[in-house]
Specification:
By secondary structure, the protein is an alpha+beta fold. It is built from 3 helices and 5 strands, in the order E-E-E-E-H-E-H-H.
């Protein structure tokens, strides 16, 4: 499945509302959302990432990268990634019952 953000010979920013197209000297980033236990991974722009990972999101600069990272952080976490770590107060509550 091809990456929807990569048009032949043209890469556009994946941030909502942004219509910037990649130029030669731009400082872009690539965000890979939800890989294994990670919420996302951020890389300096590499065309191979955009070409080989359909979910890769090319981002035109810091403002768009921060916008998309913020959106990724606001997504609910799957329940299997949430760890419950008991603390000293939990044992005291068990002893009372």
């Amino acid at each position: 499945m091809p990456n929807p953000y990569m048009v032949p010979a043209t890469v556009r920013c994946a941030a909502p509302g942004c219509k910037n197209v990649r130029g030669e000297n731009n400082h872009w980033f690539v965000l890979l959302p939800e890989t294994d236990q990670k919420l996302f991974e951020m890389f300096r722009y590499a065309e191979s990432l955009v070409r080989n990972f359909p979910r890769a999101m090319p981002l035109c600069g810091e403002a768009c990268a921060l916008k998309v990272m913020s959106e990724q952080l606001q997504k609910p976490w799957p329940s299997e990634t949430v760890a419950v770590i008991p603390h000293k107060g939990a044992r005291a509550l068990e002893d009372e019952s």
